[in-house]
Amino acid sequence: MDIERFTRCDSGNGQKDRLLAEDGRSGPVDLLQEALKLIQDPYHIVTFFLIQFIIVVPSTVVLLLAQWFEYEIVHKLVLQPPAPPAPWPDMWVVFLIFVLLSVSSLVLTVNHVAATFYTAGSMYSGQNVTFKQVIQALPCLSKKLIITALWGHAFFIIESLFFFVFFNGLTSIMPVPVPVLCVVTSLAAGLTFFFTNSVLQLAYGVTVFDGDDCKGVAAIMKGMCLARNQWCTAFGLLLINDLPGILLGTAFTYSMVSVLDVFSKCLIGGFLVLFASVFRNLSSVTYILFYFSIKATRGEKINFDAIADHTQFETRYDRWVGCLFQLMAAFPTLSCEWG
Questions:
Q1: Residue 241 falls within a domain, yes or no?
Q2: 318 lies in a domain?
Q3: What Rg do the C-alpha atoms of the chain give, in angstroms?
Q4: Residue-wise pLDDT tens for the chain (339 aa)?
Q5: How many folded domains does the chain comprise?
Q6: Which of 142, 154, 160, 176 matches a 20 to 30 Å C-alpha distance to 323?
Q7: Dihedral angle computed from the Cα positions of residues 270, 271, 274 and 280, in that order, rounded to the nearest 10 degrees
Q8: Claim: this prediction has a pTM higher than 0.85
Q9: Residues of the domain holding 97
């Protein structure tokens, strides 16, 4: 599946829209190879580089810190609570830190998804896109994506609670060996993540390209329809894209709770964050190609015009940047006056 094998269809406004040509080879490896071609495109390699280090890396840092904090809560407050007379931490502070990390992780992840989807969509519509244009498009796209992301996380929480209640009820009725319980719990958690993540990634594509009305629950339901008969490809993407990132995130958590000195933790953690961010960025680009390939398989046109109109924000963006530069220019004058 290659850019040169795209077919063109007339859109309603007379422009040409690109669609992926269905040639029967849009498997996980093909999608990954095409994603690598996009990221290494000579006209957009700088744009992807800036997205990687300005948007994806901070998002990955906050996400891994949130996972580490959740690990600390579970193991130090739930599984091994402080024994008297050891003092408990201030639970309000713990709760506020947890909420802050969770909200920050969600917002930064949505911005990361918006940036990669906008860039890939612009490239596939035949347009060159700069990092400034990506930043300009973020608020409009993120406003829609945050609703879909919240509903996706809500479904994930509901599924997790269902399995939690089910296994608690099962263990209360009949004794289950610990190894069997661990295996079954791990499989249930893995299937929950696989289903939710696959549908949510397709729902992101629906939210970005299918108009303003397709967001939230509507986007997730349409994502489920798109995922039908595509679970083998989705599972392949999980193995080659998401699993390495999950393992790197787990390694980050264990490196933070290890007995290493602070410098070693920061050094190892920095490398793990960098590699995890690379896989996250590659995963987002691959999933948008997955969305494109499914639309082509179903014979549906992709509405690239949905991401083209961001002029409303552009005026506010230019005004904000202008005010920022005015403040920066006025700072030396103010410093001299105070001096």
A1: yes
A2: no
A3: 23
A4: 444 433 333 333 333 334 444 444 478 998 999 999 989 888 889 999 999 999 999 999 999 998 888 888 766 665 566 666 656 666 788 788 888 988 898 899 999 999 999 998 888 888 888 899 899 888 888 888 999 998 887 877 777 677 767 766 766 777 767 677 777 777 877 888 888 889 999 999 999 888 767 788 888 999 999 998 899 999 999 999 889 988 998 899 888 888 888 889 899 999 999 999 999 999 999 999 999 999 888 888 777 766 665 434 444 444 444 444 444 444 444 333 344
A5: 1
A6: 142
A7: -110
A8: no
A9: 38-302
